[in-house]
TrEMBL record:
<feature type="domain" description="Iron-binding zinc finger CDGSH type">
    <location>
        <begin position="53"/>
        <end position="90"/>
    </location>
</feature>
<dbReference type="GO" id="GO:0005739">
    <property type="term" value="C:mitochondrion"/>
</dbReference>
<keyword id="KW-0411">Iron-sulfur</keyword>
<keyword id="KW-0001">2Fe-2S</keyword>
<dbReference type="GO" id="GO:0046872">
    <property type="term" value="F:metal ion binding"/>
</dbReference>
<keyword id="KW-0408">Iron</keyword>
<feature type="domain" description="Iron-binding zinc finger CDGSH type">
    <location>
        <begin position="15"/>
        <end position="52"/>
    </location>
</feature>
<dbReference type="InterPro" id="IPR052950">
    <property type="entry name" value="CISD"/>
</dbReference>
<protein>
    <submittedName>
        <fullName>CDGSH iron-sulfur domain-containing protein 3, mitochondrial-like</fullName>
    </submittedName>
</protein>
<dbReference type="InterPro" id="IPR042216">
    <property type="entry name" value="MitoNEET_CISD"/>
</dbReference>
<dbReference type="GO" id="GO:0051537">
    <property type="term" value="F:2 iron, 2 sulfur cluster binding"/>
</dbReference>
<dbReference type="Pfam" id="PF09360">
    <property type="entry name" value="zf-CDGSH"/>
</dbReference>
<keyword id="KW-0479">Metal-binding</keyword>
<dbReference type="InterPro" id="IPR018967">
    <property type="entry name" value="FeS-contain_CDGSH-typ"/>
</dbReference>
Length: 100
């Protein structure tokens, strides 16, 4: 039983960003917990595996090719800021999604 009131820490599903083509005006939900099987986007896994975390919803202004964070530790969510290159990410284990 967890007694902490702090939200859980995200797991690391990838140690590199995801290049995606975003459509301007479309709503996206970026996974913040790392448990989604549809990385970098949310599939609702946080509801059972990371209660306290929720996806970051965003709407790009225009069509764009972007790099979305895969390590879930960016300082500029949902976009990659290079944090995955730091030792604490490079030396951390990758999270393998649980079977459904």
């Amino acid at each position: 039983v967890k007694l902490s009131t702090r939200p859980p820490e995200p797991v690391i599903p990838a140690k590199k960003p995801f290049k995606v083509e975003l459509v301007g005006g479309k709503r996206y939900s970026w996974c913040t917990c790392g448990h989604s099987r549809k990385q970098p986007f949310c599939d609702g896994s946080h509801k059972t595996r990371a209660q306290g975390l929720s996806p970051l919803r965003f709407v790009p202004e225009k069509d764009a090719s972007v790099w979305l964070c895969g390590c879930k530790h960016t300082s500029n969510p949902p976009y990659c800021d290079g944090t995955h290159k730091q030792d604490f990410i490079a030396s951390a284990p990758l999270h393998e999604p649980a079977e459904s």
